[in-house]
Design goal:
By secondary structure, this protein is an alpha+beta fold. The chain has helices at residues 3-9, 16-24, 32-43, 83-86, 93-116, 132-144; strands at residues 49-50, 61-63, 68-73, 120-125. It has a four-stranded mixed sheet with strand order 1-2-3-4, with helices on both faces.
Length: 145
């Protein structure tokens, strides 16, 4: 076997089946950061709807009577400019850069579409959740206005 092919095989320690299973286990709904934010909002006395499929981007948290929406974005998956969002995978970088760029583009388009429909969106980044006091204040201000 040529040396180049051997080195390619060593890039990913998982078999294709293992990699597929790992990637399928990545959740898009009910993630830990999303649940933390939902508990915080509930503790503030607000009630909401989840994952409205009839709205662009299928928002994580929806307040229909207020026409407000909250997205809880993972920094890596949505290309945030924080430390976690700037991490680059060691393998298949071309694929991941294109995927994240596509996610960012789609997110922007969804936000614009929501605004055109009269919705007021808020994005909460995964890295922001660590500062509970700050995020609580931000959510209160967002929901009161």
């Amino acid at each position: 076997m040529p040396r180049a092919i051997k080195s390619l095989k060593r890039i990913d320690p998982l078999t294709p089946a293992q990699r597929k299973k790992t990637m399928q286990s990545v959740k898009s709904e009910d993630t830990k950061p999303e649940i933390k934010i939902r508990k915080l909002i509930f503790s503030l006395g607000y009630r909401y709807r989840l994952h409205r499929k009839d709205l662009p981007g299928k928002p994580d948290i929806v307040f229909p009577s207020r026409k407000k929406i909250i997205f809880v974005h993972g920094c890596f998956w949505h290309g945030h400019n924080c430390r976690s969002g700037q991490n680059q995978p060691k393998t298949n970088q071309k694929y991941w850069k294109a995927k994240i760029r596509k996610n960012v583009k789609r997110d922007f388009k969804n936000i614009e579409n929501l605004k055109q429909l009269g919705w007021n969106p808020l994005i909460i980044w995964e890295c922001e959740i660590k500062d509970a006091k700050r995020i609580k204040k931000r959510i209160k201000i967002f929901l009161k206005n």
